[in-house]
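User: Fold this; tokens only.

Assistant: Input:
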Amino acid sequence: MTAPLPRIPGPSATDLPAGVSVETILADLADDHVSAPEQHVGDIAAQVQRARDNGFDLSVVVLDANPRIDTQLRDLATEVVSEDGGTVLVLSPSWVGSFSDTVDRVDLEAAQDRTYTGNPVVSTTNFVDSLVEPSPPWTLMTLLLIAVVAVAGAATWWAKFRRGPEGGPHAAAPHAENPSTIVAEDPADR
């Protein structure tokens, strides 16, 4: 009889911050793609427009308080994207969450890493800067690295080729003596 296999739990249900309504956030995002306290809306809306001008469908949600756990912010962003699409940045005083159906997760995480400022306007500006600034030309850098390695390998081969098969003319040649001509040393000669 075999042992029963352990049950692997599936994904848990979306866990949203307490007191947050996705419907209310969606209604607030409808006009300017910003759901934030009134004192920050204008500055954040300018950054959202800058992102949109550069081809990123960005919406920003700012919460007044931190949720129970930081993953609730990403869950909220995921819920908003599932209803509205695009890229959503959710900020709380200490944590950040984001989700996008258009931006790669690695780019999203890199942009998100620059948003831990505690100031929603600065955080949004940093997030947009990361999205719109050109990324390093990784393909070009990889090709250059391959070329450098290939040149180094070719130079090594050329140096070895120039020395010849046995290490060149300055290498010590092995002494291949004829065994019949070897004269034993007489111990008395010492």
